[in-house]
Design a protein that fits this description.
Blueprint: E1 2-6, E2 9-18, E3 22-24, H1 33-43, E4 47-49, H2 57-72, E5 79-85, H3 96-103, E6 111-115, H4 121-133, E7 140-148, E8 166-175, E9 182-188, E10 196-197, E11 215-216, H5 218-239, E12 249-252, H6 257-267, H7 278-281, H8 288-296, H9 298-303, E13 305-314, E14 318-327, E15 335-336
Parallel strand pairs: 2-15, 5-6, 5-7, 12-13
Antiparallel strand pairs: 1-9, 2-8, 3-4, 7-8, 9-14, 10-11, 13-14
Helix pairs in contact: 5-6
């Protein structure tokens, strides 16, 4: 396990944007009412957000970032790092982080990195940007995390259509020698890479197919997460010397209600400590953790000192948890684009 601590950095703001367009699982084609009711009960997902063709993950993240920068009162020429986590970039080449640096009018001294990550992407991205900034060479950084996964889903594929949704988020990170350490536990099992995959479009695709569609082995993902997530969280709690009941909230990747509730019960966590956004937004891939903070805990993160566990798990297969403290951060209202 990749257990490590990062010092001298803290989250000072989180913002998010979702498409205005809503899709209801009650309107799914090819399923009867009984099947739809069971699907909603099992997944916890009633409605989803679907971006129009012209809106990309970068657009959602850009909008969230502009709002956050303005509310923080940051000077853009002080931002020294921008990390963009997504599985739906604007282009195969160049990296979208470079495009976002220009769109946001950040200085040429700002370093940029693209990370191809999904369900665990927020935790992975936070570990990268905080590690980069911990030495003090970079004082302010942006972590932009989002996906428009619905662009990779075949219409009528009821194994994935009712689950996935689109969103973009921005997280502001500052260097601060007084901040509490962030503790991370990051893990990978690449032998399961085919469990969630878009096989078309890469260099290994000899068919050169123009239509790229995601395929998911739901049972394999469920089994993996149920086995690996709880020990991953317990290990980071022990590493951070924090008791389970000292955590105010456990922010899980919003996979589906059946899986997440199974993890919660296995850990023995009270339901009041596990917020959900599944019913309103579905599974927004790498954006689920910050989106849940914004949507469900906005008042708390703005005014309280909170001990949190962030836990992401899925595509890769990859999973990870972060134990951290946040207090009095800037959290603008969710933007609809």
């Amino acid at each position: 396990m990749a257990l490590f601590k990062v010092s001298n950095t803290k989250i000072v703001g989180v913002s998010g944007a979702v498409p205005k367009n809503k899709a209801s699982n009650k309107d799914l084609v090819g399923l009867n009412k009984q099947q739809i009711d069971l699907l909603i009960k099992t997944t916890g997902i009633e409605s989803r957000r679907v971006s129009p063709d012209e809106v990309c993950a970068s657009d959602l993240c850009y909008t969230a970032a502009e709002k956050l920068i303005a509310e923080l009162g940051w000077k853009k020429d002080e931002i020294g790092a921008l990390i963009f986590v997504t599985q739906t970039p604007d282009y195969p080449i160049p990296g979208t982080s470079m495009i976002l640096q220009d769109r946001l009018n950040l200085p040429k001294s700002c370093m940029t990195i693209d990370i191809n990550q999904g369900c665990a992407g927020y935790v992975y991205g936070l570990s990268v940007i905080s590690s980069l900034m911990s030495s003090g060479g970079i004082k302010k950084g942006l972590l932009l995390v989002g996906d428009t996964i619905t662009k990779l889903i075949e219409k009528g594929d009821n194994s994935v259509v009712p689950i996935f949704s689109d969103a973009g988020t921005a997280t502001a990170v500052e260097f601060d020698t007084e901040s509490e350490d962030m503790s991370f536990n990051l893990q990978t099992d690449g032998s399961g890479y085919e469990a969630i995959i878009v096989p078309e479009g890469g260099s290994r695709d000899v068919s050169k197919a123009s239509i790229k569609k995601m395929r998911m082995q739901g049972h394999s993902v469920f089994t993996f997460a149920l086995k690996e997530v709880v020990p991953n969280i317990n290990a980071v709690l022990e590493f951070a010397a924090r008791e389970k009941d000292q955590v105010d909230y456990y922010i899980f990747h919003q996979a589906n209600k059946l899986l997440n509730e199974s993890i919660r019960r296995k850990m023995g966590i009270d339901s009041s400590k596990v917020p959900y956004t599944l019913s309103k937004f579905g599974n927004t891939s790498c954006a689920t953790i910050p989106l849940t903070l914004i949507s469900e805990l906005s008042n708390e993160v703005k005014s309280q000192n909170l001990n949190l566990i962030l836990s992401g798990f899925g595509v890769g297969l990859s999973w990870g948890a972060c134990c951290l403290n946040i207090s009095d951060i800037v959290c603008p209202d969710l933007i609809e684009l």
